[in-house]
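ESCALATION

Customer reports they have been waiting on this structure for their group meeting. Please prioritize. Original submission:
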Amino acid sequence: MADLLQIQEPGAAQMPGPQWKAFLELGFRPLYLAGCFWAAVSVALWVFAPGLLRGQLAGVVWHAHEMLWGFIATIAVGFLLTAGANWTGINPLTGKALGVLGASWVVARVAYLVPGNTAFGVAVASELLFFTCAAVALGRAIVGARSQRNYGVPVLVLGLGVANALFLWSAWQGDPVRLMQHFNTGLLCMAVIALLVARRVIPFFAMRAVPGLAIPMHTRSGHWQLAAAGLAIGGGLVGWAQASALFLGVAGVIALVQLSAWKPAAVRRVPLLWILYVGYAALAAGLLVAAAQLSGAVLRAAWPAHVIGVAGFSVLIIGMVTRTALGHLGRPLRTDRLMVCCYGLVIAAAALRLLALLPTELAWSALHASAGSWVLAFALYLWRFFPMLIRPRIDAAAAPIPKPAKIKVRQHPTP
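Update from on-call: job pushed to the front of the queue and completed.
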C-alpha cells in the first residue's frame, strides 16, 4: 500500500531546469497553474478579505463569476487545449500564442479588482478574447483534422464565453434576474463539457490502471445524456422551467447509471481514480438538485450551483489536474501522500460549504472552515506541481512537441 502513495522521481541530476518553451508547450501547463492559483486566491479574498473587492462587480457577483469563469472554465480550457492535441494530432495553441492567451486571462483577473469603468471594460475585453481565442484554436485543430466526434467542443467553449458576456452585461445593467439566468446557462454549459470529458476519460483511465478491468464506454447513453443537458439549457433560455427540470433529471440519472456500470468498487484503492468517481457522483447529484429546484422544491438558490460547482466540478478538477498532469509530464501515474491530502481537503471543503448553506448556528464556522480547507488544498497542489509544470517532460529529449497545425504531436498516454 505504501508503494501506491509514492511517486518515484528522477534524481536531482536528471531533473531538467525550468524553461519557458516547456511552460508554453501545451495548454494544461499555464492554465492549470493559473486556475488553481486563482481558486485559492479568489476564495481567500471572498471569505477572509472581502473589503479588497472594489471593482465594478459586487461581492457575491464577483465571487460567482470568478469561480465559474475564472477558475472552473479556465481549467476546462487548459484540459481541452491539451486533449485536443491528442484527439486531432494538432496542438491547438503553443508558444507565444498560448502566452498571449494566458496574459489575457491575467489581465482580466487583475482588472476585475480595480475600481472604475475603464478597468471593467479592459477586464471584459480581455476575458472575451480568452474564450474566443480558445474556441477558435480548438475549432481550427478539430475541423482541420476532420475530427467529427469533437465538432461540438469549440461550440461549448464559445457558449461559455457567450454566457459570460451576457452575465457581465446583466451585471453592468444591474439586472439580477437575467444575471442569474446567464450564470445558470454558463453553469450548464460547463456541466455539458464535464459530462462529455468524464464519460470519455474515466473508463479509459480506470481500465489502464486496474488490470483486467473491463467497463463500458456508454457511448449511446452519453449521446442521450448530452442531448438532455442541451435541451435543459434550451428550456432555461426560453423560460420552460418544468421542461428544463425534466431534462436535467434525465441527465443526472444517466450519470448515476453510468457510474454504477464503471464498477466503483474496483477503483477504491486507486486515489487517481476514486477521486474522479466521487466528483462524477457529485455532479450527477447536482443535476438532480437543480432539477428538483426547478420543479418547485423549496431550496436556497445557492444549492444547485454549490453541489454542481463545488462538490462536482471542483472534486473532478483536483483529480484531473493531478492525473492528466502526471500523464502529460511523463511521470509515474501514482499519487503521493500530499496529493491524497489535497483530495481529502477539497472533499472536506465541499462538504463544509454545503453545511454552511443550512440554517444552523454552524453556518458561519463551516464557511470559514470550508474556505481554509479549500485554500490549503490548492496551495499544496501548486507547491507540488509548480516545479513539474515549468520543466520539460522527463522524456522530452526523446519526444519533442511540434508547432501547431504543421506536424502531428506525440501521442501521450492520456486522451
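Sent to customer with the following note: The chain has two domains: 20-174, 194-390.
Escalation resolved.
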